Amino acid sequence: MVKGNCKVCVTGGAGYIGSSLVKKLLNEGYTVHATLRNLNDQTKVDILKSFPGAEQRLKLFEADMYKAEEYEPAIQGCEFVFHVATPMLHTEGHKHKNMIDATLDGARIIASTCIRSKTVRRLIYTASVMSSSPLKEDGSGNFKDFMDETCWTPLNHPTIDYNHNFLKEYIKAKTLSEKELLSFNNNDVGVGMEVVTLVCGLVGGECLMPYTPGSVTGILSQLLNDEYSHDSLKFMEGLLGKVPIVHIEDVSNALIFCMEAISMSGRFLCTNAYVSNADIASYCQNKYPQYSIKKYLEGPKGETKLGPSLLNEKGFKYEFDWHLVLDDCINNYINKNGDLKL
Ligand SMILES: NC(=O)c1ccc[n+]([C@@H]2O[C@H](COP(=O)([O-])OP(=O)(O)OC[C@H]3O[C@@H](n4cnc5c(N)ncnc54)[C@H](OP(=O)(O)O)[C@@H]3O)[C@@H](O)[C@H]2O)c1
Prior knowledge:
Bound molecules: NADP nicotinamide-adenine-dinucleotide phosphate
Low-confidence stretches: none
């Protein structure tokens, strides 16, 4: 494969994961079609255009998940599509009644557009561990022994009925759209389009965009004393047993690994660690004693373990352990904000 001739589409190319992926794809020599919602957002556009190779091999497109037909020109002619964009807030004024509906409908339209293009060989989705809770389906609140690719969050579980509207909708949106996208998988090897869902843990590390991503604020919430993010982290531990964490570099590398594999389809967990909130707090407290943790999340120590990694079995190697994820979140936050303050 001559990489410069290989066109790859990244939906949500100006987000946290999207921008890191676009930069890496350009570095690797691919031609990239990246989408964002507003081509007049000069800050995002300028950062994307500043990446090495962008002048020759980056083309930007405007598209919104609420009008997912808009992705067609970006997908046309591409061999691989990374579907990274996801609504984080419901936008009124469209046919969709909520964020779940828009995410699911958008995913369906993007997958159909990929098939219609006749050029797309593989669609790779940034799924979330929030769809992979190891909670037992019996409603007991007990966890399975392992968290692995067979785990699906039971959407009618009482735990989900939580007073956090964004997370409630996000979990449903990500779970239903992941299942929907997997249903587009063509199981006849070498025929039609393959679909990979990369089920990412909470992502941390450097963000190329000027903002601090929600997942980084979540990881740092105990240090930042951020009530809202505290709450989300606690909820995440309650839903998943512990908190799966992964470095942004490992996520981008894993996405490209899924693209470059000769043949690959199905669901793959992407996380290098599965730790408790208390573990996160202890590490931060010991390594950064100058910052005091005001609200230490001392939760139950979950017994669930990560199952054998299907991604590792395929040959992928993680480069960053969870301590490095935390260190890079802290350093990046301080570089951007001058201190560890909200
Ligand atoms: N960060 C994590 O810990 C994590 C973990 C697992 C899975 N994921 C998944 O990874 C993907 C990217 O997450 P992120 O952390 O990079 O988030 P992010 O920085 O907040 O980026 C969100 C992206 O979604 C796009 N977006 C939001 N609403 C949209 C809409 N209505 N139509 C089209 N695009 C829209 C944004 O586009 P604009 O630039 O146009 O605003 C942006 O590119 C998501 O699918 C998320 O579920 C993230």
